[in-house]
Amino acid sequence: MAVAKLKAPRGTFDVLSEDALKRRELHRRAWAVLGRGGYRPFETPVFEDTELFKRGVGDSTDIVRKEMFTFEDRGGRSLTLRPEGTAPVCRAYVEHGMHKLPQPVKLWYWGPFFRHERAQAGRYRQFSQVGIEALGSDDPSLDAESVLLLAEVLEAAGVRGATLKLSSLGTRESRESYLGKLRRYLHEHEGDLSEDVRARVEENPLRAFDADHVGTRAVMAAAPRLLDSLSPEDAEHFAEVCALLDDACLGYVVDPTLVRGLDYYTRTVFEFESDKLGAQSGVGGGGRYDGLVAELGGPPTPGVGWAAGVERILLASETKFPAAPRPIYVAIDEMGTRRQAFGLVTALREAGVRSELEQAGRSLKGQLRHAARIAARGVFIVGDGIEWTSLDTGEQRPVGGVQEAVRIAVGVVT
Ligand code: ATP
Ligand code: MG
User: Fold this and answer.
1) Which atom in ligand 1 lies closest to the alpha carbon of residue 282?
2) What angle do CA 403, 409, 412 make, to 5 degrees?
3) How far apart are CA 125 and CA 86, in angstroms?
4) Whether residue 285 has its Cβ less than 6 Å from ligand 1
5) Model pTM score
6) Which of 10, 68, 88, 254 is buried most, with the most CB atoms less than 10 Å from its CB?
7) Residue 112 preceded by cis peptide, ω within 30
8) How many Å lie between the centroid of ligand 1 and the Cα of residue 218?
């Protein structure tokens, strides 16, 4: 009987070596950019109490309603594979009393996230995000800095021509009167709305701006806009963020319909979109969340941040990331022994030279073909003595011994 083939679960993928190299390189570049901005690396667990996301992300969001991988552990606790990083970072901020540190506390993270979504290109059930959070200040320069840093990460990753959309949602208080207005408008046009949106008019009317449903979109095109009803303080904050971005010569589109899929946003929200991604156009986005830390039981603490999808960045990237560095190859002819070859490779590696040796029982001819296939810089053939062949220049010469071989190899790789 045939044994059923095992496959990676739907919506997940293996990172093959070539992609793993690209991801490493992206991580390195992101770290360089974010480190310059004063952000320090930070990690939280891959799963958290389900309650964190219910409270932090919001009961009425798609993420909490439909997309979480939630399970019970053996002690009957409800845990959830993290669908996003902001609520966990805020939880950690409170748990470690980070409000006592000099503010703002600036953190960046990189790691796997999990959402039960319909899998397609650019949309997975396990994906990776790179993100930042700045906690403890509502200064508009932090909003602008955070937007600029995402632009810089995308630039460093070779993502060109992404569109930056920007808006402000106001503070929760100033939002309430607007939401009343919006709810009344939605009720007036109830017949044209999607069922999903209709069901959430009371709970989360802003989500209607985010709908794909044709009828809903038509209704929303004429809906009253939050951006037009900001309080004077919120309007001033937004104007300052825009002015700082103008000074930095970063282009953006003010999009009053921009609504992000998380309940916690206040004031600034933004998103970068790339037309290289098809339907999944969002590369990264974020915003300010001045009420979230308090919501999670901490002291009132403003915050701002973003997250970007690692896979989508690489899909949108036009950069040719560097290939693996080229090794030196140690071959064995019929006079040579495995011990000699092994000794030479060990000496080369100790001297910092990336090197490989014959380990698959190939003939000498097969070994030389293999050396070319792995793009080796040169080959030492171990036999009666040692012979060096540069695969770049074709130069060939006998080598006096292991020490001389190491000198040659170090000269070639540096
Ligand atoms: P989308 O509109 O595509 O569903 P989102 O608004 O849910 O995105 P965020 O929660 O803002 O996305 O997450 C930030 C970034 O993480 C996105 O811009 C995207 O690049 C990436 N991302 C989100 N969900 C997925 C997923 N299921 N697979 C791959 N990347 C994702
Ligand atoms: Mg989503």
Assistant:
1) 18
2) 145
3) 18
4) yes
5) 0.92
6) 88
7) no
8) 25
List pLDDT tens digits, range 85-131: 999 999 999 999 999 999 999 999 999 999 999 999 899 999 999 99
Structure confidence by residue, pLDDT tens digits, 8-51: 999 999 999 989 999 999 999 999 999 999 999 999 999 999 99
Q: Which atom of ligand 1 is nearest to the CA of 262?
A: 10
Instruction: Give the separation between CA 299 and CA 297, rounded to whole angstroms.
Output: 7
- Tokens representing 344 are 């030479």
Q: What is the mean pLDDT of residues 210-234?
A: 91
Q: Is the C-beta atom of 127 inside 6 A of ligand 1? A: yes
Contacts of 74 (CB under 8 A, 6+ apart): none
Distance separating alpha carbons of residues 250 and 253, to the nearest angstrom: 10
115 C-beta closer than 6 A to ligand 1 = yes
Query: Tens digits of per-residue pLDDT, 334-383?
Result: 999 999 999 999 999 999 999 999 999 999 999 999 999 999 999 999 99
Q: List the residue whose alpha carbon is closest to atom 22 of ligand 1.
A: 309
The atom number, within ligand 1, closest to the CA of 124 reads 28
- Bridge partner residues of 307 (DSSP): 131, 285
Q: Is the CB of 85 under 6 A from ligand 1?
A: no
Dist. CA 298–CA 126, nearest whole Å: 30
